Amino acid sequence: MTDTSPARDINPACIRYYHAHLYYEDAAGLAAARQLAEAAAARFELRVGRFHEKPVGPHPKWSCQLSFAPEHFGKIVPWLALNRGELDIFVHLGTDDDLFDHTQGVIWLGHSHPLDLSGFTADT
Q1: 72: domain CATH number?
Q2: Predicted confidence pLDDT, tens digits, the chain (124 residues)
Q3: Contacts for 64 with CB less than 8 Å, ≥ 6 apart
């Protein structure tokens, strides 16, 4: 008999936030990311972070972070999926375990990209 139980049983209440990282790699992509972030901020309760013009942290491309509460996920993420244009978006949950959040708690809108996870350890 095969065990089909989940490896972990984690309560979703541990999700404190979500981040959506808009990925771009040139001036045209930066302009598209700014436009998308402005439209999202006008429509939803979220915070727009800095627009980086170099890879930062684990992110392999230029990026901007949108931060929002878990209760807004069901409206924001579908809207981003439909309005992202050519941008790739990395969405992850925030549980205070960065390694888990950036590997197991992720959704890609568009193409996925390998992250640099060398700065993360479990429960960091």
Answers
A1: 3.30.70.1240
A2: 555 555 666 788 889 999 999 999 999 999 999 999 999 999 999 999 999 999 999 999 999 999 999 999 999 999 999 999 999 999 999 998 999 999 999 999 999 999 989 888 765 4
A3: 21, 22, 24, 33, 34, 37, 48, 49, 50, 51, 52
Q: pTM for the full model?
A: 0.88
- Per the structure, the count of domains in the chain is 1
Assigned domain for 7 exists: no
Cα 95 from Cα 12, distance rounded (Å):
9
Buried b (16+ CB within 10 A) or exposed e, 54-92: eebebbebbbbbbebeeeebeebbeebeeebeebbbbbb
CA gap 92, 98 in Å, rounded: 10
Q: Are 82 and 53 in contact (CB under 8 A)?
A: no
- Chain position carrying tokens 């439209």: 39
Within the chain, strands assigned E span 17-24, 47-51, 62-68, 88-94, 106-109
